[in-house]
Amino acid sequence: MLGVIARALICALLTVCTLVVAQDTSIVIPTTAAPSATPLPSGEDYTYAGCWNETVEVANAGGVRALAERGNSSTNNTMTIGDCLKFCSSVDAQYAGLEYGRECYCSPYLSSFSEKLEDSNCSFACNGNGSEICGGQLTITLYNKTSGSTGVAWRLQGGGQATWYALAFGFMLFAAFLW
Hints:
Residues 1-22 form the signal peptide. It is a single-pass membrane protein. 23% of the residues lie in helices and 22% in strands. The chain is of the alpha+beta class. α1 (2-13) packs antiparallel against α3. It starts with a helix and ends with a helix.
C-alpha cells in the first residue's frame, strides 16, 4: 500500500502544467519592422528591458520557454505592445515578452538561460501596430514590471529547472527508500 502511495506521489510531483490561453488560431506571418519602428519605453507599469533570446532551443534548457515558469500566454493577429502589457498586468506577472509579432508571454520569472541581446535582434513588427517591435524569431522584446516591485532580483538565478531536477531526484530517492 505504501509503495502505491509513493508511486502516486512521484507521478503527481513530476507533472508540470502551464496555463496557455489561445485567442486566435489563424496565423499571420510577421514582417520585419519598418526602420522607424521601436519598442515602447514603458506602459502599464512596465519598463522596456531590451531584446532577449528565447530558450526553447538553448542547450540544457529542456525546451522550456524563457517566460514559461508559472506563466501565461496570449496569441492573436492584432497584437500590440499595449495589449501584451495589459494582459500581463491582469495576471500580475513580473515580466511581459513579445515574440514573432503576435505572441505575448507573461511570467513571474525570466529563465537564467535567457541572455540580453542587441536590440536589433528583435526586428518583427507587431501585427496590430507596424510601428512597434514585437520580438523576432526566437527573440523576445522584454518588459519588466516596475511598480509594486518587491525588490527581488528580476532574473531567476541558477535556473528553475535545475532546482526542479534536484527536488525530483530527492523525491525519487525517498520513494526508492520506501520500496
